[in-house]
Amino acid sequence: MKARLIKYPGRKWLKHESLWSEPELRKYLPETELFTTQAFIQLVERHAVLFVKPDVGMQGQGIMKITRDGDKYVIRTASQRFVYRDVNKAALKLKQIIGSERYLVQQGIDLIKIDGNPIDFRALLHLKPNGKWKFFGIMGKIAAPNRFVTNHSSGGRAIRLYQALRVTKEDGAEWDERIKKLSGLIAHAMKRHFPKITELGLDIAIDTNHQIWLLEANTRPQFQLFRYHSDPRLFARIASSVRMIRKHSV
């Protein structure tokens, strides 16, 4: 796939297509398609949970969760719930909600949870002047009760990796190393496709079978979560790195 000279590629589909073209990364990517009623119907028959999300968006806004439960299809938005027994009617309702916007439909991952509240993670990397990626670390986000998105703007809160996995700090360090290695592979792939990028915030999921997934790669990521990292100095180092990167990108 041809490299794109876009500094901040915002479209989720563009980034998914780019990473899907990398054979070594495919097993980490949920099945994802551009939303059409046909694509939705095909995916919902293969996966009991789907997420429908804007192609361009942030902070979890506009995301819908669709659950297939027996002969029922349940659509949840941030504020509403719709139930259908006909998959075609569910698809048409989604199309009505979406309107003319471009959306994606994505395989839902059975995320690890605490007290029923799903958790995902943010890994943060910056490109150093020597051309190598620096991995700053990973922090978890736990959704508020009865929410299916983990973003702070939706009531989510920070949690450390080992706490989310309910393991010792030593075992948590091994998980951190696994995610660091995968993050490096993803960062190098993203750089091949988008040579101008200098920052990455990777939205990582760990499912109940402890498989790691990449939900999304963000190229101008927020990093407020890292205020809660176990290293109290890390946030200041990240903020300094961000200022330096963005100063030289102007």
Question: What does this 3D model show about the protein?
Answer:
This protein has 250 residues and is of the alpha+beta class. It folds into two domains: 12-23 and 111-249, ATP-grasp fold, B domain (D-amino Acid Aminotransferase, Chain A, domain 1), CATH 3.30.470.20; 32-107, no CATH class. It is built from six helices and twelve strands. The chain has a six-stranded antiparallel β-sheet, sandwiched between helices. Strands 7, 8, 9, 10, 11 and 12 form a six-stranded antiparallel β-sheet that branches. Helix 2 crosses helix 3 (87-98). The longest helix has 25 residues, at 169-193. It is globular. The model has no long low-confidence stretch (mean pLDDT 92).
The largest sheet, given as strand count, sense and whether it forms a barrel, is: 6 strands, antiparallel
Quote the CATH topology of the largest domain.
D-amino Acid Aminotransferase, Chain A, domain 1
Structural class: alpha+beta
Average pLDDT metric:
92
Mind sketching the topology for me?
Blueprint: H1 12-20, E1 32-34, H2 37-46, E2 49-54, E3 64-69, E4 72-76, E5 81-84, H3 87-98, E6 103-107, E7 113-114, E8 117-127, E9 133-142, E10 157-159, H4 161-165, H5 169-193, E11 199-206, E12 212-218, H6 234-249
Antiparallel strand pairs: 1-6, 2-3, 2-6, 3-4, 4-5, 7-8, 8-9, 8-11, 9-10, 11-12
